[in-house]
Amino acid sequence: MISLVVFxxxxxxxxxxxxxxxxxxxxxxxxxxxKQPPELSIGTxxxxxxxxxxxxxxxxxxxGNIKSELQLLxxxxxxFLDVDDLKDIGSLEEYIQRSxxxxxxxxxxxxxxxxxxxxxxxxxxxxxxxxxxxxxxxAKGGATLQALRGECxxxxxxxxxxxxxxxxxxxxxxxxQRVSLKTIVEAVLLCSPxxxxxxxxxxxxPGEPESQPLAFxxxxxxxxxxxxxxxxxxxxxxxxxxxxxxxxxxEAPGPATHMLLYLNEDSFSDERLAEQVKQAREDxxxxxxxxxxxPDLGGCQFSKFFETTPQELIADGLYKDLARxxxxxxxxxxxxxxxxxDLGATPARSGSVASVSRLSASIAERSxxxxxxxxxxxxxxxxxxxxxxxxxxxVSVDSVEPAASAEAAQEHV
Length: 413
Hints:
Layout: H1 2-25, E1 30-31, E2 48-53, H2 56-73, E3 79-80, H3 82-85, H4 92-97, E4 99-106, H5 114-125, E5 130-134, H6 145-151, H7 154-161, E6 166-169, H8 174-190, E7 203-204, E8 214-223, H9 231-241, E9 243-248, E10 258-263, H10 271-282, E11 286-292, H11 305-308, H12 311-315, E12 323-326, H13 332-342, E13 346-347, H14 354-366, H15 377-380, H16 406-409
Parallel strand pairs: 2-3, 2-4, 4-5, 5-6, 8-9, 8-10, 10-11, 11-12
Antiparallel strand pairs: 1-7, 8-13
């Protein structure tokens, strides 16, 4: 018995050490202007900086990850999540009242949930600032924004989708997920007392690829075949952003060191491309693949390429290598940086600012603006933190009931 207790204690200690090391290694969000962590603040009478509104069936795992990652990136951030904080399903409106910003996690079924609709209507009635996070992966219960809007009651659509709320897509790849998380953090900070006078708050995370100064130390030529529609535009963008890359658009690769294979719904519609890819593989020319995810540029699910790509190339292992996703908006600079690294770009020498300047320009051009049209009194003053008459919230923080059972919590679905 003693040995079992000792063993359990050792396992616990090892787990604690591993967790502590992970926390220590996770960089935190910084203000671009000062390179210092932002100062958290919360309105009088409020309990949580952020409330995570979601449906369990298609959003539980994602919002659980959002909460844990946000609290690592922003230590001290208080986030309401039903599995952790729900005491009484009948008090949803009061939980909304005590939260500074409300996150709507948009996934299939969200707008059909009775309790999610309670949270949504309460948020709008109380003029709470909102941030929209979209699940876009169909395999995870996601859909296009248009399809998700179609599930929303008509009387709510304008207030949710046409008010300029901060919006981002939930990503599962770490480098892109950080961008989504920074969008959420910025929205939360802009609604806090310390930053009410700001209209934007650029953030960074140490080590993120889009903030690293990259350049090509070795002579690098990227071939963008004329048979691959869209490849030249992307290749030119990479070359413009990072110093030292030459782009060739000749009919044949010639002296090129790499070939860019740009994949969208129209890929391989030109029969020449398949032959060129086959020849490049035979010649050991390194192929860097970019998977377009922007619907406006022919973006599609990767599975579609197994239908449109010649079977000979698939059987030969073309897709055994990783294709970098190309996302629009705020995620686009990350796509460019990762593609540049695949092409051999390395950290620029200390003091070199050329690639940083180019990447900053790319961010400015491609990122969607964050416009929060909100009634900030609701999140930063005591007047609307309570019952609308200047009083405090009706739920006392000091009189917290024991956590609700799993059965009661599932009523939230």
